[in-house]
Amino acid sequence: MRSPLATVATAPKMTIRETAALGRDVAASGWEAAAMRLSGRLAMVVGVGAALVLAGCGSARVDQLPPPLGPAREVAALTGGRSVVLLGRARVLELRDARGGLRGRAPAGVGPTHVACLDRGVAPAWCYVTDTRGNALVVFAVRDGIAPRRRLYLPGGPDGISFDHARRRLLVTLRTREVVELPAHGRPHVLRRRPPRPRTAPP
Is residue 201 part of a domain? Predict the structure, then answer.
């Protein structure tokens, strides 16, 4: 694996605060994906056109973390009775079996708001989390467990997320009300951006 320009410093107790990116839309490299899995550490990863600042939660309790930007808990169903649960305040994504047992857990970004999953019954299933505060779409692979696979910078505060199943597209609505269209698979990239629709005046 190529060596990035990176600085990693340990800290006993830190909280994720922000991410920033420079230039065009970019996806996380292998080193950036590894940084997403750091716990209890502060990491800065600088790649081509992007800068990412992460800090693990360390020993901080959930009630000491900032309130969630979206729902405190959101569930997306998978085949076989399994489900994925986004815990907004804890900023984690959990994989649960049909009985509700915990099968896996992964960090879900700086300020996650919504989750949607695409499960065609063949592994891996793909789950997508809008990290509104982090200006990113985070992609997770679901097999027997769950793991982050890609982080795509989407400026404007990605919030709502849905599928266009007929066209196999992922639609992400930004807080600027712009809609970003991406292919619904494990390596999504921006295909087009739809300008926000003008607000209609009340009658």
Answer: no
